[in-house]
Amino acid sequence: MHKHGSYERYRKPDGVEKIAIEVFRCVLCGQYLSVLPDDMLPYRPIGVEEVEQHFDAEYADGKGLSSLTEIEKGCLTRAVKSFAQHTQSLCTKLGQMIKSIRPGTRELWRELRRFGRLKEILRMLAEKFKTSLLRDYLCLKPTKALNL
């Protein structure tokens, strides 16, 4: 891997704070890799901790978090929708690691929380299953090696 450069992205939904994300390129396969801090989600301006807290509240009593800005509510609503759409794919990939048979989003979230905090869950999904919590991202898909 060689450092290729960096780009800026928003750290929070309000668009006030930006952070530099380093980009690396694999010389063998040609794939680019952005290295996100542990507290950020791919393609989402909302943080890991906020998503974890919201999902815990949403799937415990169905009310979610209060005292959020409209922008944060929108980001979290989209995250819940993406997770619901990705539930079946996650269940298929996780297989027998999930105790429930055909779990819904609430049950799947509870099952995932057995593996720890959202940071650990995201790392496990990326490393072992090449996916993420909210969708299958192209950046996690393996590419064919270059003929060198």
Order of helices and strands: EEEHHHH
Which parts are unreliable, with pLDDT below 50 for 5 consecutive residues or more? none
Number of helices: 4
What share of residues are in beta strands? 5-15%
Distance between the termini: 15 Å
Topology:
Blueprint: E1 2-10, E2 18-25, E3 32-35, H1 48-61, H2 70-94, H3 105-113, H4 118-129
Antiparallel strand pairs: 1-2, 2-3
Helix pairs in contact: 1-3
Structural account:
- Strand 1 and strand 2 form a beta hairpin.
- The protein has a domain at 38-140.
- The longest helix is centred in the middle third of the chain and has 25 residues, at 70-94.
- It contains four helices and three strands; from the N terminus they run E-E-E-H-H-H-H.
- With 148 residues, it is an alpha+beta fold.
- It has a three-stranded antiparallel β-sheet, with no helix packed on it.
Summarize this, please?
With 148 residues, the chain is an alpha+beta fold. It is 41% helix and 14% strand.
